[in-house]
Amino acid sequence: MLKKLKTQIEHFIPVIVVVIIIEFFPQYFNLDFMNPIQNSMDNFNLTDMVFSSLRDQHKIQKDTNIVIVNIGTLNRSGIARELEIINSYEPKVIGIDSFFKNRKSDSLDIPLITAFSKVKHLVIAEKIVYNNEKKIFDSVITSHPDFAQFAVGGYANFTMDKKEFMTVRNIPPKEPVNGVIKLFFPIQIAMIFDSVKAKKCINRDNKNEIVDFARNIDKYTVLDVNDIFNRQDSLHFIKGKIVLMGFLGPDIKTLVSEDNFYTPLNRLFLGKSFPDMYGLIVHANVISMILNESYFDKMPERITKVLEIILLSIIIISLHYLRVKRFDLYEPLSIISTLGLLLVVFAFLIFMFNKFNYYIGTSYMLWGIVLIVPVYEGYHDSIKPLTLNFISRIKNKRLKNSKNDIDSNQEKKRISNDNS
């Protein structure tokens, strides 16, 4: 009974080792030579394939609720003229993804302030600042009060992990800043356009929401600088819409890296050469997601870890059976089964994400499958024999010392008897 229990417990030793490696090794060991590999892996997510390859872009309809306007390299008076033309067609809300932090000159500022004052519902971008020492957002950078007085603010910066390397996959709907809840720029715009749907997003109370990247610039109505000035008599479709104004390059045909990000729509998963989506289009995707209520749910990390342990335990039991009962097939089947299981897990994770909008974290599960076979073999072929040999040597040494002590005591006793 004890021997059987010992065998069962022994099965879980490789599982425990793998869990410890995955959980603690990256936190306490920094291997510089692995940085290029790590950077590439951080920039890749299995679910990116759903957005970039599996979805049929031809079936995705243009979002007609949103009109995107490029401000290009216009100065403040130029933006004012653009804004006046747009506002004359009575959009429901105008969001400007730009800062006007300081006053410059009256000739540039007054026309813009005047244009702002005429907009019924205006949202201007802000920036929340993270304090690395306090580990909180503790301040907000806003436009100058002369500009901000006519608008509500929403933070437009993507609070990305540094390891994401300018890749946007998630957005924070709200953030506490010194005890005050601030809303993300697109959430603030959606709140004016459709408060019921915007509140649904907020009430999900997720720290981060996976963005439903369904559309790039070609799936929205986009107006360049010249379009506004040259077509100012034919922009009636703006009425009642959301208008997003921001930078899309000097013109929309000239792609630049400024305010440009990587997203899952980029078909180059690893080693991406150039960002594929301007920040303004990312904001548009967030608004589309809110209005369409196309959210993704996430499996809690603790449940993912439990599933990982169960899966690894099943693998260990299977490996042990092959090793004991069919050792001749152990080597080929262990490799084939590991690769096959990886493919099955890949397919399952993608299926759940694509079909049911359900995200299951991949790092623990996939790395666990990759590591379990070498750890299992290392334990049984190296660590266990060496440990047993070491214990055996200690036992033998103790037995030998004990025997020597007995022999010595017997010799002393014999000598004592002879003397007497």
Descriptive keywords:
single chain; 420 residues; alpha/beta; 2 domains; 7-stranded mixed β-sheet; two-stranded antiparallel sheet; 13 helices; 15 strands
Overall mean pLDDT stands at 85
Low-confidence regions: 31-43
Coarse shape? elongated
How many E strands? 15
How many structural domains does the protein architecture include? 2
| CA gyration radius, whole angstroms | 32 Å
Question: Biggest sheet, open or closed, and with what strands and sense?
Answer: 7 strands, mixed
Please report the distance between the alpha carbons of the first and last residues: 54 Å
Structural class: alpha/beta
The number of helical runs is 13
Strand content: 5-15%
SSE arrangement, N to C:
HHHEHEHEEHEEEEHHEEHEEEHEHHEH
Helix content: 40-55%
3D structure, described in words:
The protein has helices at residues 2-28, 35-42, 48-54, 76-87, 106-117, 145-148, 185-193, 195-203, 225-230, 279-292, 301-325, 327-356, 363-419, and strands at 63-70, 93-96, 122-131, 136-141, 152-155, 170-171, 174-177, 180-183, 209-210, 220-223, 242-246, 260-261, 277-278, 297-298, 358-359. With 420 residues, it is of the alpha/beta class. It folds into two domains: 10-42 and 296-420, no CATH class; 57-295, no CATH class. The strands form five sheets. Strands 1, 2, 3, 4, 5, 10 and 11 form a seven-stranded mixed beta sheet that branches. The protein has a two-stranded antiparallel ribbon with strand order 6-9. The protein has a two-stranded antiparallel ribbon with strand order 7-8. Strand 7 and strand 8 form a beta hairpin. The longest helix is centred in the last third of the chain and has 57 residues, at 363-419. It is elongated and about 125 Å long. It starts with a helix and ends with a helix. The model is unreliable at 31-43 (pLDDT under 50).
